[in-house]
Amino acid sequence: MDRIRIVGGQTLSGSIPISGAKNAALPLMIASLLTPETVILENVPRLSDVRLLMRILGNHGVDASIDGKRAGQSEITGDTIRLSAAGIVDTTAPYELVSKMRASFWVIAPLVARMGQARVSLPGGCAIGTRPVDLLIMALEKLGAVIDIDAGYAVASAPNGLRGGEIVFPKVTVGGTHTALMAAVLARGTTVIENAAREPEVVDLADCLVKMGARIEGAGSERIIVEGVTSLGGARHRVLPDRIETGTYAMAVAMAGGDVTLDGTRAGLLQAALDVLAKTGTQITDTPDGIRVRRDGGRIVPVDVTTEPFPGFPTDLQAQFMALMTRAQGTSRIRETIFENRFMHVQELARLGARIRLDGDLAVVEGVPALKGAPVMATDLRASVSLVIAALAAEGETVVHRVYHLDRGFEQLERKLGACGAMIERLSGEK
Ligand code: UD1
Fold it and tell me: Active site includes 126?
């Protein structure tokens, strides 16, 4: 298992290309199950989660290939992948695969919509809370699927196809909204999705589905209306920029100081997080192709934050922001309202000298004048990158273990930060 070694204290300068969004690429890839024709996705990030999903889709009979790079394309340019589900050979998604990546549970929706049946393992426990799938199952049931839980699997059937219905989510769920959308596009009649997630990744999925021939209105608002169609065709679609990667590097610059442009992204995808960063004393400006982030070494101002569904401050940036706040001049309060137990990074940040007190869903972070490097352990995707951010400003050396968590969601992290002057390297193999 690889480790990442960071020697803190360098300011960052230069530019970082922002990859396509993992959380959009995954549902877009899954949507290829809805059509026998080819779906071509551009700007797909090169991440282990994407590779794993290709394997899972391959199991169902999807023919997946990655285009070779053309002359002039940088190594950091995302992949173009072709997905063709001409024949679905298996409607079962086994435990060994689904348990490695929760989002693969979402295959249940296109499989039951197109094939009338699906047998998908329940994802099981997860390091950041219980993360149930009850609302995804509820959504499919509202569209006429019959779902039994059998030996750890959700077994869905709709032998005569799905029919439109009204789905009212009692709480905002991204996965639930993706699932409802993918099921409703092939259901007979009209589906209304109330209290839908408004995340940009939902809009990206809806945009691609519309290119495939779906009839969807209101994606990006709380109410989405879908008129079912009998079949969908192929499409070519470019995955939107990763707002979490964007926010992560913006926080890295805020932490380390310096002047970095984040290319190929848009401020509107993470305005709430950028507004918070601006309050910490970081300068954020738009550039023609992205965002410029600067901090000149002045003090980091503490800011209180509560995570919320989009357009609020994203839970996926909570750990990174907490890392920044460990160096603020004063105390900040960070409330996590989306996932319980999403504070595993706290113990590891404490190893670097951070002072954080937990009280239920609240973390009270008392800024310290200096952090000190130490060996730390990555526990989940976002938590691990928060350790990298802390390490950038820590005195001496930090080694982050179990970086496979990082590889699930951050493409070439050490290369992107290294190119801006960070002292960061990957060490192969676990000591
Ligand atoms: C997605 C993102 C993840 C992000 C999260 C919230 C992907 C691949 N993952 O996860 O990075 O942190 O959105 O922005 O896109 N819930 C239920 N029952 C359900 C489903 C969800 O109670 O059936 C709850 C969850 O426990 C959580 C909340 O709803 O408290 C939001 O979860 P959800 O938006 O569904 O997260 P994911 O789609 O799994």
Answer: yes
Pick from 36, 313, 34: nearest CA to 179? 34
Class of domain 24-238: alpha beta
pLDDT for res 76 = 62
**Do the beta carbons of residue 162 and residue 187 sit within 8 Å?**
yes
Pinpoint the alpha helices (H) of 336-398: 345-351, 381-392
**Residue ranges of domains in the chain:** 3-15+242-427, 24-238
Cα of 173 vs centre of ligand 1, distance in Å, is 5
The pLDDT value given to residue 127: 52
What superfamily in CATH does domain 3-15+242-427 come from? Enolpyruvate transferase domain (3.65.10.10)
For the chain, which residues score pLDDT lower than 50?
Answer: 128
- Measure the CA–CA gap between 164 and 191, rounded to whole angstroms: 4
CA distance 417 to 283: 19
Entry field: residues in the chain: 431
- The residues pairing with 377 across neighbouring beta strands, listed in sequence order, are 401
How many CA atoms lie less than 13 Å away from 35 in the CB half-sphere? 26
Q: Is 132 in the pocket of ligand 1 (CB under 6 A)?
A: yes
